Amino acid sequence: MKLLLTALLVAVLIAVLFPAVLSWMARPPRTGLEQGRMRPCPDSPNCVNSEKGTDREHSIEPLPLKLEARQAWALLKEAVALEGGRILEEQPGYLHAIWTSRWFHFVDDVEIRLDKAEGLFQVRSASRAGYSDFGVNRKRIESLRQRWQALQEEAGR
Question: Where is this region: Disordered (predicted)?
């Protein structure tokens, strides 16, 4: 009985402390633009980026505009909210939002930059903690893409 109680206590402590330790270990986000572009992804496979010059492992397609930039921007912000993101920073042509996982409260940063010259939105999604994200950031951007395209099509009718 004593062994069972000890094991239970250890399990509870791990369950409570594990997320706290991971939050403490999570690196602060390096977000924002460098020379008008989003920062490159780190070597770890927990980031995707649509900026030109991104290596194959981290590369993802940008979001093409089908509407006027101002209307597309408003719909993009709506898509971010509908997909569970919370916008932390918005500047003309730049948006920084976060997604927080349900169980361990991992935080991922999503950045979006209006690329007027190319007529699209460049996107970057990166985990703050850990090495691998099991494809979560790529799936997030693809889900955001689908939501945003549906909103654009609906608005274009």
Answer: 33-55
Strands (E), 92-130: 94-100, 107-115, 120-127
**pLDDT on residue 24:** 45
Radius of gyration of the chain (CA): 19
How high is the pLDDT of residue 108?
95
Q: Which of 134, 123, 19, 8 is nearest to 64 (CA)?
A: 123
Of 52, 47, 20, 19, nearest to 31 by C-alpha is 47
Q: Is 98 helix (H, G, I), strand (E, B) or coil?
A: strand
Using CA atoms, how far apart are residues 9 and 15, in angstroms rounded to an integer? 10
pLDDT at 12 over 70: no
Instruction: Please state which CATH number belongs to domain 2-156.
Output: 3.30.310.80
Local structure of residue 41 (DSSP, 8 states): P
